[in-house]
């Protein structure tokens, strides 16, 4: 199949070569009596130069040879013959032919060299990205695995006497390491789903306040040295969103805030909506839902804010570890639900992530009435 496609492409190139030279020559033929043949030669050289930008070498050589023959046959006297009576005209035609060939070959070689250089640059960048990802993954996966294995070895050891309290502490370490390992594996799987384009949100009624507290409960160990504030609008309705995707979004953002802000920093999660939507003119009951996650840490470097949602991107001065996947997954999951995520630094210090969705709402009173 590929060989057939390549043959079609080559045939098209030959056709383009012949038609381009023939079209220019035909136009010049109508005004041959008013044009010096040298001007026609220049025009045909331009055609060969343009064709050399995107044709392969053989169609290019055809255009150069065809241009020389047409120039001789139609525009150098005597017309309609390949015989040239003037030595000067013979020399000019020979030079035209050589220049056209050299121009075609050199331009083709330059194009090939540029392609080779581009391939090398892509390979170098890919290797850098691969090495960076491998380093971060090996650290992020090896650390919890080592913790789990070390704790299990200690518990199972017959030569070391362990108190029940120490055993409980080791079990707690195993649980914490397992959750961290699960988080990294989830991020890798989620990125794979995003890359393959198989994310299909399962929209259902979500209680975002309950969702936020569930996430905070899962992150209680990571947040034990932070001040957590949750604010929600009064009579917050249910929103039609994908509960699983929203849980992962909030989890990644809060986890990031816990890892990259100092101890004692405040993390505020606010869920609000526009209660003044006029449903008479909005029969679909679409309502703006806004979730903000704010911290009073050090914020983000201004020149890197536009890059933080890129896959595998990590801040230049960030601490070791991390895969650079968390925020790119947030962006992918938000956009999968037709939402928008933005990041800004606060004037008073810290940063704020804003998630906004135009989504269906249902007041809890409607449920009780039903």
UniProtKB/TrEMBL annotation:
<dbReference type="InterPro" id="IPR003594">
    <property type="entry name" value="HATPase_dom"/>
</dbReference>
<protein>
    <recommendedName>
        <fullName>histidine kinase</fullName>
        <ecNumber>2.7.13.3</ecNumber>
    </recommendedName>
</protein>
<keyword id="KW-0547">Nucleotide-binding</keyword>
<keyword id="KW-0808">Transferase</keyword>
<keyword id="KW-0597">Phosphoprotein</keyword>
<dbReference type="InterPro" id="IPR003661">
    <property type="entry name" value="HisK_dim/P_dom"/>
</dbReference>
<dbReference type="InterPro" id="IPR004358">
    <property type="entry name" value="Sig_transdc_His_kin-like_C"/>
</dbReference>
<feature type="transmembrane region" description="Helical">
    <location>
        <begin position="12"/>
        <end position="31"/>
    </location>
</feature>
<dbReference type="InterPro" id="IPR025201">
    <property type="entry name" value="KdpD_TM"/>
</dbReference>
<keyword id="KW-0812">Transmembrane</keyword>
<feature type="transmembrane region" description="Helical">
    <location>
        <begin position="91"/>
        <end position="110"/>
    </location>
</feature>
<keyword id="KW-0902">Two-component regulatory system</keyword>
<dbReference type="InterPro" id="IPR052023">
    <property type="entry name" value="Histidine_kinase_KdpD"/>
</dbReference>
<keyword id="KW-1133">Transmembrane helix</keyword>
<dbReference type="Pfam" id="PF00512">
    <property type="entry name" value="HisKA"/>
</dbReference>
<dbReference type="InterPro" id="IPR005467">
    <property type="entry name" value="His_kinase_dom"/>
</dbReference>
<dbReference type="GO" id="GO:0000155">
    <property type="term" value="F:phosphorelay sensor kinase activity"/>
</dbReference>
<keyword id="KW-0472">Membrane</keyword>
<dbReference type="InterPro" id="IPR038318">
    <property type="entry name" value="KdpD_sf"/>
</dbReference>
<dbReference type="Pfam" id="PF13493">
    <property type="entry name" value="DUF4118"/>
</dbReference>
<keyword id="KW-0067">ATP-binding</keyword>
<feature type="coiled-coil region">
    <location>
        <begin position="160"/>
        <end position="187"/>
    </location>
</feature>
<dbReference type="InterPro" id="IPR036097">
    <property type="entry name" value="HisK_dim/P_sf"/>
</dbReference>
<dbReference type="Pfam" id="PF02518">
    <property type="entry name" value="HATPase_c"/>
</dbReference>
<dbReference type="GO" id="GO:0005524">
    <property type="term" value="F:ATP binding"/>
</dbReference>
<dbReference type="GO" id="GO:0005886">
    <property type="term" value="C:plasma membrane"/>
</dbReference>
<keyword id="KW-0418">Kinase</keyword>
<keyword id="KW-0175">Coiled coil</keyword>
<feature type="domain" description="Histidine kinase">
    <location>
        <begin position="136"/>
        <end position="361"/>
    </location>
</feature>
<feature type="transmembrane region" description="Helical">
    <location>
        <begin position="43"/>
        <end position="71"/>
    </location>
</feature>
<dbReference type="InterPro" id="IPR036890">
    <property type="entry name" value="HATPase_C_sf"/>
</dbReference>
């Amino acid at each position: 199949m590929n060989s057939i496609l390549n043959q079609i492409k080559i045939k098209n190139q030959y056709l383009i070569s012949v038609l381009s030279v023939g079209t220019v020559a035909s136009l010049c033929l109508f005004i041959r009596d008013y044009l010096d043949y040298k001007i026609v030669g220049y025009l045909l050289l331009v055609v060969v130069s343009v064709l050399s930008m995107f044709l392969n070498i053989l169609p290019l050589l055809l255009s150069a040879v065809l241009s020389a023959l047409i120039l001789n046959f139609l525009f150098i006297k005597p017309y309609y013959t390949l015989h040239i009576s003037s030595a000067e005209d013979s020399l000019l035609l020979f030079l035209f032919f050589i220049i056209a060939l050299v121009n075609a070959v050199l331009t083709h070689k330059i194009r090939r060299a540029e392609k080779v250089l581009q391939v090398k640059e892509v390979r170098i960048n890919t290797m850098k990205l691969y090495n960076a990802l491998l380093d971060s993954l090996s650290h992020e996966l090896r650390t919890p695995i080592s913790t789990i294995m070390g704790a299990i070895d200690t518990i199972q050891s017959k030569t070391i006497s362990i108190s029940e309290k120490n055993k409980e502490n080791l079990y707690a370490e195993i649980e914490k390491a397992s959750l961290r390992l699960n988080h990294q594996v989830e991020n890798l799987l989620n990125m794979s789903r995003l890359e393959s384009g198989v994310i299909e949100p399962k929209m259902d009624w979500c209680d975002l306040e309950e969702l936020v507290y569930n996430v905070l409960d899962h992150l209680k160990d990571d947040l034990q040295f932070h001040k957590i504030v949750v604010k929600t609008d009064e009579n917050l309705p249910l929103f039609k969103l994908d509960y699983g995707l929203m849980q992962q979004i909030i989890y990644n953002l809060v986890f990031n805030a816990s890892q990259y802000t100092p101890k004692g920093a405040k993390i505020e999660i606010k869920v609000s909506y526009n209660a003044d939507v006029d449903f008479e003119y909005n029969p679909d009951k679409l309502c703006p839902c806004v979730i903000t996650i704010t911290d009073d840490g050090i914020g983000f470097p201004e020149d890197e804010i536009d890059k933080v949602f890129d896959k595998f991107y990590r801040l230049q001065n960030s601490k070791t570890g991390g895969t650079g996947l968390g925020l790119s997954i947030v962006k992918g999951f938000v956009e999968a639900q037709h939402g928008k995520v933005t990041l800004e630094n606060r004037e008073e210090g810290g940063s704020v992530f804003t998630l906004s969705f135009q989504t269906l709402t249902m007041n809890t009173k409607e449920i009780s009435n039903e």
